[in-house]
Amino acid sequence: MGVQIIRLVYWCQKKIELTIIILFCGFLVLSASCSSSEKRIGNSQNEHSYAKGFDISDFPGYRQVEVKNPWQKSHGNSFTYILSSHPELLSDSLHSKTIIKTPVNKVVVFSTTHIGFLAALGMSSSIVGVSGKDFINDSIVRSSLENKNCLDIGFAPNIDFESILLLQPDLVFLYGLDPSVTSLVSRLEEAGIKSVLVSEFLEEHPLGKAEWIRFFSAFFEMETLGDSIYSEVERNYQARKTEISEMNLLKPSVLVGLPWKDTWFMAGGKSFAAKFIEDAGGQYLWSNNENTDYIPLDLESVFQKAIHADIWINTGTAENCDEILAVDQRFQHVPAFQNGKVFNNNLRVNATGGNDFWESGAVRPDLVLSDMICIFHSPAGEREMKLYYYRNLK
C-alpha cells in the first residue's frame, strides 16, 4: 500500500516541479553549452546503500550511468551511457559514448525481473517486446501481448531480430551470462537501436538487487519515485531484520533447492539466497561456504547435510511433495519433509507458469524476507494467512 501512496505523492510533486523546471531550464541549458570542465553537480546517486553493479552521476545537462562487470566472472569491464533530454546540446566529447534520449517511452526487456522494476514505477505499458511471454505474470504486459501491442522476441541467442526492428523501441534492456551478449549489443547498435546491460542478478544482497529501481528510473526521468520506492523497501527490510534478530529465537536449519539430473546447484554461503536466510533468522546448511554464486554438488554430499534440515525452501517447479519424491525417494528421510515444512516460492503463478516471485520479488525483498520469517518462526496456523510469495507444499 505504501508504494502505491508514494506513486500518488510523486505525481502531485511532478506538477509542482514542472514549474520550477521551466524557470530554470534556460539556465541549465546555458550551463550545459558553456561548461568545458563537465564538473559534477548536485546530488549524484553514486552513494548506493547496497548495489555494486552500477553508478549514476549528474553533470550539467546530462546524467551518466555506468554498469560495471555485467556478466558472471567479469573483471574490469564497464559500459557507460549518457542520458539527456536534449542530446543535441551535448558536447562533441560525449558522442563517442552511447547517448540515450530521455525519457524513453517504448522498451524491450529480456528478463522478467526487468518487468518487475518497470511495474513498480507504473511503466508496464511502456514494454513493447519481451523474451518468453509464457513466463510473464504482469497483467498489463500480458494484455498487451494478447492485443499484439507487445511482441515476444524469443530467447538469446536465437532472438527474433526482425521483430525488434519492427518495434523500433527507444531502448532495449539486456542481460548476459557471459561476454557473448556484447555481440547482440553491437548488432542492435548497427541497426540504430540503443541498448543497456542490466546485471541486478549478480548483486549479492537482496537490497542490492532492489536498488536497481534507481537505475531503471533514470531512463524514464522518474528518479524521485524510484528513490522513494527503494527507501521504503529498505526501511521495511531493515525493520523486519532488526525485529527478528532482537527476539533471540532458535535458528532452524535450512535446505535450499532441488537437484538438476544428478547435480544439485547449491547456493553459496555468501550468496543472495544465503543472505535472505541469515536475515530471516535461519541457519543455512552451507553458510560456511565462501562462494557468492552456485556450487555444483553431488546428491550424496547434499544428503549428508540435508538430514539435519528443519526447513526446506525453493524447491524448483515442484507443486507438491509427490513431485519431490519423484526426483529421489530418499527425500522422504529429510526431517523437513517428514514434518511438513517444505515451502516453494510459487504461490503467485498464473496459468502459463508466469511466477510473480521472479518479477516483483526482485524489487520487493522486504516481502520475501517477511515470508521467510513467517516460514521460519510463525506457528503453522498463522503461517498460511501471512505468506505472499511462498506456500506450504502438501
How would you describe this structure to a colleague?
There is one protein chain. This protein is of the alpha/beta class and 394 residues long. The protein has two domains: 35-233, Nitrogenase molybdenum iron protein domain (Rossmann fold); 249-392, Nitrogenase molybdenum iron protein domain (Rossmann fold, 3-Layer(aba) Sandwich). The protein is 39% helix and 16% strand. It is built from 15 helices and 16 strands. It has helices at residues 2-34, 112-120, 139-146, 161-167, 181-190, 206-210, 213-219, 223-245, 272-279, 299-306, 321-327, 335-338, 360-363, 365-377, 380-386; strands spanning 54-59, 62-68, 78-84, 98-101, 107-109, 127-130, 151-152, 171-174, 195-197, 253-256, 263-267, 283-284, 294-298, 311-313, 342-344, 391-392. The strands form four sheets. Strands 7-6-5-8-9 form a five-stranded parallel sheet, with helices on both faces. A five-stranded mixed sheet has the order 12-10-14-15-16. Strand 8 (171-174), helix 5 and strand 9 form a beta-alpha-beta unit. Helix 1 (2-34) packs across helix 8 (223-245). The longest helix is centred in the N-terminal third of the chain and has 33 residues, at 2-34. The two termini are 31 Å apart. Residues 8-43 have low confidence and may be disordered.
State the major sheet.
Answer: 5 strands, parallel
CATH superfamily of the largest domain: Nitrogenase molybdenum iron protein domain
Proportion of helical residues: 25-40%
Number of helices: 15
CATH architecture of the largest domain: 3-Layer(aba) Sandwich
What is the count of distinct domains? 2
What is the CA-based Rg, rounded? 23 Å
CATH C-level of the largest domain: Alpha Beta
Quaternary: single chain
